[in-house]
Amino acid sequence: MAFEFAHIARRAGVSEVIILEMGQRPLVNFDSDLVELQMERSKELGIDICLESRVEKVIKMDDE
């Protein structure tokens, strides 16, 4: 779901879109070549993908 929402947000004009993935690669149940292609296309669109990342807290800023 992260890739779907990230692509929707980016194409809708959201300037900063980041996917945080806890593992070494996203979509582990999918073919690795297809996942690599998806990651490349996402990066070309301006979506940042951070692997081996965890959210520690969320801070609301400036009514966003």
Explain this structure.
- The structure is a single chain.
- It contains 2 helices and 2 strands; from the N terminus they run αβαβ.
- The protein has a single domain (2-50), classed as FAD/NAD(P)-binding domain, CATH 3.50.50.
- It has 64 residues and is an alpha+beta fold.
- A two-stranded parallel ribbon has the order 1-2.
Give the N-terminus to C-terminus distance in angstroms.
Answer: 22 Å
**Number of folding domains?**
1
Radius of gyration of CA atoms, rounded to a whole number? 13 Å
N-to-C order of helices and strands: HEHE
The total of beta strands comes to 2
- 3D shape: globular
CATH homologous superfamily annotation: FAD/NAD(P)-binding domain
Instruction: Identify the CATH architecture.
Output: 3-Layer(bba) Sandwich
Strand content: 5-15%
Which structural class should the secondary elements be placed in?
alpha+beta
State the share of residues found in helices, binned by percent.
Answer: 25-40%
Average pLDDT, rounded to a whole number, is: 94
CATH class (first level) name? Alpha Beta
